[in-house]
Amino acid sequence: MNWILDMARRNIRRNKRRTVLAATSIALAVMLMTFLGGLMSGILDNMVRNLTRSDMGHVRIVTEGFVSRSRFMPVDELVPDPAAVMSAIEAIPDLPGELVTVTERIMFGTLLSNGPNTKAAVGFAGDPGKEKALMNLDRSVVEGRYLSGPGETILGKQLADDLGFKVGGSMLVVTQGADYGLHIKRFAIVGLFSSGLNQLDGAFFQVPIADAKAFLRTDEGSQQVLVMLDDYRKADRAAERIRQAVAGLPGGSALLVQPWTVVGEYPGLIKMMESMYSYIFIVIALLGAFIITNILMMVVLERKREIGILKAMGLKRREVLALFLAEGALMGAIGSGVGATLGMALCYALSIYGLDFSSAMGSLTVPMDPVFYSRFELSNGLTMFALGLLVSIAMSMSPSRRASAMNAVDAIKSVA
What is the value of pTM for the model shown? Predict the structure, then answer.
C-alpha cells in the first residue's frame, strides 16, 4: 500500500491548482466550524457567567422563604451563619469544578432622597474584595475610587446625577430591617461607576456587607451564600456535594442548596440557545461536507483519461478506489489542519480581546458584561480536525467508487 500513498502524494503535488482549491475549501469549512464552535461555547459561557455572578451564583444557599419572596428582596429570610456555611464549602476536598469564589450577599430596596429629588434604588452588599471578581464594578468607576473601608458606598453615575450626589458627599439610606423597624444610615460617597447598563447605573449602589448587616439588623445573617466554579457545567454535581456538607451544620437541614440550572427561567433560555447553536453547527458541517464532495467529484471528472490509463496498465478496481481515497484523505488532512489552526487562532484572539456589545446592551435590565469572549480549548481544534478528516474520507467514497467503476476504454476515449 505504500506505493498507493506515494502515488497519491505525487498526484497532489502534480496539480497544485486543484490541490489548493480542494484544500482551501476544506480549510474554510473546518475553520468556520472551529471558530463558531469556540464562539458559541464562549457566548454561552459568558451568558451563564453574567447571569450567575450578578444574581444566583453557580450554586446558591438560601432559605425556602427567600425563594418564595425573592422578587421582594426580603431581609428577614437569612442564612443564619454564613461564615460556617462558607467554611464548610471551602473544606470540601473533591468538589466537582474548581472553587473560584464563595461569598455572601444582601440586597435591599430603598428610596433615596436629596432635597426635592427622590428615587427608588437597590442596595447591593457584599465583600468588596470578592465582588471585584464578580460584579467588576471597580473597573467601571469613572469618578473617585472603589470601596476600601466601612461606611463607604459607590453608586451608579446616572443615579448620582438624578439625585445630585457627588463624590466626597454623603448619602442617607432609610429602609426596613430584619426586625421590621425603619433604620437610617449615612454612607460616604467615594466613587461613581458607569457600566453602560442603564438599570445598573441608574438604580444600584454598593456598600460593604458588614455595614449592611449592622444597618439591617440581620444578626450576622445574609440572604444568600453564592458559590462560583471554574466550569458552570459542573454545578449540579457540586450542589450535591455542598448539600451534604451543609446538612451537618446547625440549621443546615432547613437551607436550600440550588444549582443555577433550577433557578428562574435562565436555564431554559440557555438550553434553547444551545439547541439553536447545535442546529447552526450541523448546517455548517453539512455545507462543508457538500463543498468537499463537489471538489472531489470535480477531481474525478477531470481525470477520466488518467483513470482509464491506470486501469489499462493493470490497476485493479480496489487499487483505484484506494488511490482516490488516499488523495481525499491527504487533502482532507492538509485542509483540516490549516482550517483548525486558523480557527483556533481566531478563537484565541477573541478569548483575549472579546467582542464588545456595549451599544446593543445598554437597555438591558440585568447587570451583564457587554464584552463576550470565545472559549479557547485545544480539544475543540483537535475535534474539528478529526471531523474534517473523517468527512473528507467519507465524502471521497462516492467519487472514488465512481472512478474505480469506470471502463478503461471509455475513460481513455473521454474528453474530460
Answer: 0.71
